[in-house]
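As the work plan foresaw, the team has encoded backbone shapes as discrete tokens. One protein thus recorded appears below exactly as we store it.

:::
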Amino acid sequence: MRMNSRFFAVLLALLMSSPVWALSLNEAMSALPAAKSAGLVGEQPDGYLGVVSASGNAGDIARQINQARRQEYQRLAQENGIQLRDVESIAGKKALERTPSGQYILLNDVWMKK
């Protein structure tokens, strides 16, 4: 019984402190160029980042940036009276076009260096 209460106390402490480990949007934006250059994340045709290599904080970077992108895409869709998926598609096309050589993009469900 004592072991269970200790285990749950540690688990609760970890759960309560986990937001401390998460990156803020500003931290994710600052880490994005290095993560792209290292091949950890790349651009997708749907306008969002994808994790190419699940190393380091690639998942946190993609999650934070994608959440901010979705909010902006929703704002743009509502402001212009168009569907969210249309904004995502336009943004994805632009992101793929703007991605520099040597960084990853997702084409036909395959990650490749541009």
